[in-house]
Design goal:
alpha/beta; TIM Barrel; seven-stranded antiparallel sheet; 16 helices; 37% helix
Length: 486
C-alpha cells in the first residue's frame, strides 16, 4: 500500500521565496535551459553516531511527480509584483524534466555522501530545494534516532508512541513511517496505519482507569471487551499494591473462565527496573509467566540500555517524544548545493568555499559505491567517484583519507555495489518504488552489514568514505582555482 499525504495536497509552493526570485532571474537572463547538477547531502551524524539512515524518498518522488503551479499560485506570485510576465507564463506551463538519482530508503549513510542527485534545467532543479530537504531531513532524522533505540533494545520490540508529541500532524504521520523503516514493530498513530499499512498498537490511557469507580472495575470492563488482546496499564495508582494485584484478579475472574490468556501489562512511570522485577515475580507466582511487561515513560536508547544492564524484566518498549522528535538532536542538517554546470556535454565543477572546512563542498557530477567483503559480507568503505569513472576492484582497492591523504588502507577480496538508483529519467519515473515492508527488511540487512564498532553509541569507529583519485584531483584543482580567483 503506497498512499501519501503529498499526493493529496499540491505542495509545489512549499519553497523558499528565493527559489522563485532566482528562477525569475534565471529566465530573464536567458538561463532557463542551463543544465546543472545539485547534490543533497548532510554534514554531521545526529547524536555523534556512527551512521544515519536515509528515508523519505517515496514522499520526495510523489512531490516531484506532482509538480505544477495552480491558478491560485500564479495569482499569488503576480500579487508580489516581483515576477515578470514571461516567468509567470513559464510557471503556468511548468513541466518537470529532471534526471534524479538517489540512495534507496533504509540505507545506512554517512556525511558528505550525496543522498539525492538532481540534474536538469536550473529553474526546475532549484525549485526542488526546500521540499526535498524538509522531506529527506525529517524522515532520515527520525529513522536514524529509531535505529539507535531499536539497537539498544537488543531484539526486544520497540513500539512508536510519539504522535501526541510530534511537531505537527505530518511529522506524526511521516515520523511513524520513518520509525517503522528503522525497526519499530508498530505505531500508535492510526493515520499512519491507514496510509502506510503499518501495524498499529494501543490499549488504554490513565483516563480509562480514572473514569471508573475503582481500578479493578476498569480492568475487568476492559478485559470483557477485549478478551483476546488484553493489555492493562498498571501504574495509575500504585503498581505493586494495586495495579498488579488487580490485574491478576482480572485475569483470574474474567479471562480464565473464558479460556483466554492476557497479553501484557504496561508500566508508564516510576523505577521501571525495580517495578518490572517485582511485577514479573508476582505474575509468575500467580501463574502468568507468559504475560509480557511493556515499559514506556520518556524512554530513549540510553535508558533502555541501562534497563537491560540492570536486568529489568521488560519484554518490549513504547517510545514516544524522544523518538518522534529526535529530542537529543532534533536537526538532521541536510543541504542542497550546486556542484556542476553542463556545457557542451562536459560538466564544469562548481564549489562552495568556506573558512569552515566541513562547509567546503565536493564539486562535480558524481556516483557512489559501497565496498563489501566477499568473505564476511560486511561493508568496508564507501567511494564517491565521478559519474563516468570505472571502478575496478578485481585486484582490491586502496582508499585514502580525503583530508589526511597519507592515511591509506588496502581493501582485498571485495565487491563494489553502486548505491544510486535512477529515480527519474527526464521527468519520467524510472524505477519501481519498493513497499514499506521491503524497505524495512532492506534496512535491517544493511545495518547488520556494518561493523559493530560503527554501531557504538559513544565514540563509534569512523566508517571510511573516500573520494576517488579522479574526484579528489578535481576537488583540489577546483578549490585552488577558485581560491585564487577569490
Amino acid at each position: 500500500m503506497s498512499v501519501n499525504l503529498t499526493s493529496e495536497t499540491n505542495l509545489t509552493m512549499l519553497a523558499d521565496f528565493y527559489e522563485l526570485t532566482m528562477s525569475n532571474g534565471y529566465l530573464q537572463n536567458g538561463m532557463a535551459d542551463k543544465v546543472v547538477v545539485f547534490d543533497l547531502f548532510f554534514r554531521r551524524i545526529p547524536d555523534n553516531g556512527g551512521f544515519a539512515i536515509a528515508a523519505g524518498l517515496e514522499q520526495a518522488v510523489e512531490y516531484m511527480r506532482g509538480l505544477n503551479f495552480s491558478g491560485e499560485d500564479i495569482e499569488y506570485l503576480r500579487s508580489q509584483k516581483l515576477f515578470g510576465k514571461d516567468f509567470l507564463k513559464y510557471l503556468e506551463n511548468f513541466k518537470f524534466t529532471c534526471d534524479v538519482w538517489a540512495i534507496p530508503e533504509g540505507t545506512p549513510v554517512f556525511p558528505n555522501e550525496p543522498l539525492v542527485v538532481v540534474k536538469g534545467p536550473i529553474i526546475q532543479a532549484q525549485m526542488l530545494e526546500t521540499m526535498l530537504l524538509v522531506t529527506i531531513n525529517h524522515q532520515s532524522l527520525i529513522a536514524t534516532k529509531t535505529s539507535r533505540i531499536v539497537r539498544a533494545a537488543a531484539g526486544k520490540n520497540v513500539f512508536e508512541f510519539g504522535a501526541r508529541r510530534a511537531h505537527g500532524y505530518s511529522a506524526a504521520v511521516y515520523g511513524a513511517r520513518a520509525a517503522y523503516i528503522a525497526g519499530c514493530a508498530s505505531t500508535s498513530c492510526t493515520l499512519s496505519g491507514l496510509k502506510f499499512d503499518i501495524p498499529v498498537s494501543g490499549t488504554m490511557a490513565h483516563s480509562w482507569v480514572q473514569s471508573f469507580d475503582t481500578e479493578l472495575e476498569a480492568f475487568k470492563t476492559y478485559a470483557k471487551i477485549y478478551p483476546n488482546s488484553c493489555v492493562l496499564l498498571i501504574d495509575t495508582y500504585n503498581v505493586i499494591n494495586s495495579g498488579v494485584p488487580n490485574a491478576i484478579k482480572t485475569f483470574d475472574e474474567v479471562l480464565k473462565p473464558l479460556g483466554r490468556r492476557p497479553r501484557a501489562v504496561r508500566i508508564d512511570s516510576g523505577d521501571i527496573a525495580y517495578l518490572s522485577k517485582k511485577t514479573r515475580k508476582m505474575l509468575d507466582e500467580a501463574g502468568y509467566p507468559d504475560v509480557q511487561i511493556v515499559a514506556s515513560n520518556s524512554l530513549d536508547e540510553y535508558i533502555i540500555r541501562d534497563l537491560l544492564l540492570q536486568q529489568a524484566k521488560v519484554d518490549s518498549f513504547g517510545v514516544g517524544e524522544n523518538l518522534i522528535t529526535s529530542k537529543s538532536n532534533p536537526v538532521f542538517g541536510g543541504v542542497y548545493k550546486l556542484v556542476a554546470v553542463e556545457k557542451s556535454g562536459d560538466y564544469i565543477p562548481k564549489i562552495k568555499i568556506s573558512e569552515t572546512v566541513e562547509k567546503i563542498t565536493t564539486p562535480g557530477f558524481k556516483s557512489l559505491y559501497r565496498f563489501y567483503s566477499k568473505d564476511s559480507g560486511a561493508a568496508q568503505a564507501d567511494l564517491i567517484a565521478l559519474y563516468n569513472e570505472k571502478i575496478n576492484v578485481s585486484n582490491g582497492f586502496t582508499i585514502f583519507d580525503p583530508v589526511n591523504t597519507w592515511k591509506k588502507k588496502a581493501l582485498e577480496n571485495i565487491t563494489a555495489r553502486p548505491l544510486y538508483v535512477r529515480v527519474f529519467d527526464k521527468g519520467r519515473l524510472a524505477c519501481k518504488l519498493p513497499s514499506l515492508e521491503e524497505i524495512k527488511n532492506y534496512c535491517a540487512l544493511e545495518v547488520a552489514s556494518l561493523w559493530e564498532e560503527v554501531k557504538r553509541f559513544e565514540f563509534p569507529h569512523k566508517y571510511y568514505v573516500d573520494l576517488s583519485q579522479g574526484l579528489w584531483d578535481l576537488k583540489y584543482s577546483t578549490l585552488s582555482h577558485n581560491g585564487r580567483r577569490a
